[in-house]
Design goal:
about 575 residues; alpha/beta; Rossmann fold; 4 domains; 7-stranded parallel beta sheet; about 40% helix; globular; disordered C terminus
Length: about 575
């Protein structure tokens, strides 16, 4: 498609062209180029395009030009799925309407004072941008009157339906006469529910669709690191120290994890803040504003809280948790590599989450490269180089007389050498650990592959064969969450309702502490030391794994697995 410049389209007003020029845009994106002419013609449209393709300007420019500034009634209503996106669209519309005097814009969403919104509506606004729930509240209260509505926009319609807003959307659509309303619907996907809304509420809409050969932008360098859960924070901070991004985002799967990661990073001295659904909207808005200005260097967020954020200068996205759905991964890494800039995405993957990573690669048809865990030596080198650059800059700047006198007095009084003073200051500044407790060498697996040789302890786990648990699941879970390598795990006996596993005695307390709050194949577990058994008992059909046969399994009978069998009662855990 041949690119068209904004100033080449005669239907766009000079005021908006001036505002677009101020924003630094020249050429239209494909969705803008296809949609804008139809909207100016007054046609209903269905725009299908991914997030970050310029949809806001595609509907915002013709909507603004359609407004009569002398009429203080609501003439355009834009629905968004989240508060963040509503605020983002409001800011974008305000920039586009910069030179259109007399046009008032008001965002309305939950978490913000209802009284303040009511006062804003009473003063007269022509464009309202809001979330479905709050818009319905205002319509019910009669504080939002839409009887003179000209333009109705559904932004990210599929996401609104996923969040359960279909009834609200249909209530709003049904309250405005079809003849007087131009309906613009934008969605990344076209599920059946969207098609039903199109057929019911739109008048012969024009379909404009942007085909995306790649779900992820080529401007993002995607990498993953295989780590244990307990080592994630250490690996994350090493990546931050190694690449030193000016602005970066960290995504977690839960609000609690966002709180924990933020607190731990603050404790380590990083410039960091957070957003998630439990925070008041005004607090979230303040945090986002600080992040945009660079007052905060790192923003930790959940997927829902970050939806709709449009910040061009994010250099790196860190997936602290592997997202549970492929689309979340695409959305997360789309926060970087924007506006033609290059970006990076690092995903921390535990052994149990490798299958999720493979699903993402299949979904995006993109290879995600493995990245080694940065070593202490690499971090030391980066920190030292950065510090030495600062030192040299200070020397070149001069004005060091006062400090030279302090050092000279110290050398005279305490009989120190200048190099010792410099080394002490360097040590205080860099605070480098003496030992790298994470094994980052490539031959780690070779050196740790020896069989267990010390005393072993038998552990009881409260999940078994009926939970679809297999020996490899037990090995992967324990090895992924603790410091035990899989080769050091001994015999595993899996019964219908429970499992026994042997581990080196020195790791018993660590396994109980780390695994008791964990899951195996999504099943919450408890783990404890098993009572000493009178003799080897293997129930027919139980899964067994011997540490001496390299993880192999032998079958007996119909689906049974060969192992030691004797008469006796069922083994029980320690009470």
């Amino acid at each position: 498609m041949e690119k068209i410049r904004f100033d080449e389209l005669e239907s766009i007003s000079n005021e908006i062209k001036r505002a677009v020029d101020d924003m630094g845009f020249e050429e239209m994106t494909p969705i803008q180029q296809m949609a804008i002419p139809y909207v100016y013609e007054g046609l209903d449209i269905v725009g299908q395009a991914q997030t970050g393709t310029g949809k806001t300007a595609a509907f915002g420019i013709p909507v603004i030009d359609s407004i009569d500034p002398s009429n203080k009634s609501v003439q355009a209503l834009i629905l968004c799925p989240t508060r963040e996106l509503a605020l983002q669209v409001s800011e974008e519309i305000a920039k586009l309407a910069k030179y259109k005097h007399g046009i008032k814009i008001l965002p309305v969403f939950g978490g913000q004072s209802m009284d303040r919104q009511i006062q804003g509506l009473k003063r007269g606004v022509q464009i309202v941008i809001g979330t479905p729930g709050r818009v319905i509240d205002h319509i019910t209260r009669r504080t939002l009157k839409i009887n003179e509505l000209k333009k109705f926009v559904l932004d990210e319609a599929d996401e609104m339906l996923n969040m359960g807003f279909r009834e609200d959307i249909e209530t709003i659509l049904g309250s405005v006469e079809t003849e007087s309303r131009q309906t613009l619907l934008f969605s990344a996907t076209m599920p059946r529910a969207i098609l039903e809304i199109i057929n019911k509420y739109q008048n012969n809409p024009k379909l404009v669709k942007v085909e995306h050969k790649e779900l992820t932008t080529p401007n993002v360098d995607q990498m993953y690191l295989e780590v244990k859960e307990k080592d994630k924070l250490e690996v994350l901070t090493r990546l931050i120290d190694l690449y030193n991004p000016k602005l970066s985002m960290i995504f977690c799967n839960t609000k609690k994890k966002v709180d924990d990661v933020t607190d731990m990073l603050m404790t380590r001295g990083y410039s960091v803040d957070k957003i998630h659904g439990d925070m008041k909207q005004v607090v979230r808005s303040n945090v986002i504003a600080k992040f945009k200005k660079g007052d905060i260097e790192i923003l930790v967020a959940t997927d829902v809280a970050a939806r709709g954020l449009d910040i061009d200068d994010v250099e790196i996205v860190f997936n602290f948790d592997m997202p549970s759905h492929e689309e979340y991964y695409v959305h997360r890494i789309g926060r970087t590599g924007r506006a033609g800039k290059m970006g990076s995405a690092f995903t921390l993957v535990t052994p149990r989450d490798i299958y999720l990573l493979k699903n993402v690669m299949n979904y995006t048809k993109k290879k995600i490269k493995r990245h080694p865990i940065p070593s202490i030596g690499e971090i030391e080198s980066v920190k030292t180089d950065t510090f030495m650059v600062k030192v040299k800059a200070e020397i070149e700047q001069g004005n060091l007389d006062r400090y030279i006198k302090i050092v000279e007095k110290m050398l005279e009084d305490d009989d120190f050498q200048a190099i010792e003073v410099a080394a002490a200051l360097l040590k205080m500044e860099l605070e480098l650990p003496e030992k790298d407790f994470l094994d980052t060498s490539e031959n780690k697996r070779d050196r740790s592959s020896s069989k267990p040789t010390g005393p072993m302890v038998r552990m009881f786990i409260n999940v078994g064969k009926k939970h679809q648990i297999r020996p490899n699941d037990v090995v992967g879970s324990i090895a992924g969450e603790t410091s035990i390598s899989g080769s050091k795990i001994g015999d595993i006996d899996i019964y219908e309702d429970y499992t026994f596993v042997e581990i080196p005695e020195e790791y018993a307390d660590e396994v109980i502490e780390l695994m008791s709050q964990n899951t195996i194949k999504g099943k919450p577990i408890s783990i404890e030391r098993a009572k000493a058994r009178k003799g080897p008992v293997v129930k027919k059909g139980a899964y067994t794994r011997s540490s001496g046969n390299k993880g192999g399994y032998k079958g007996e009978g119909k689906g049974g697995y060969k192992g030691d069998r004797s008469k006796g009662t069922k083994p029980k855990p320690q009470s």
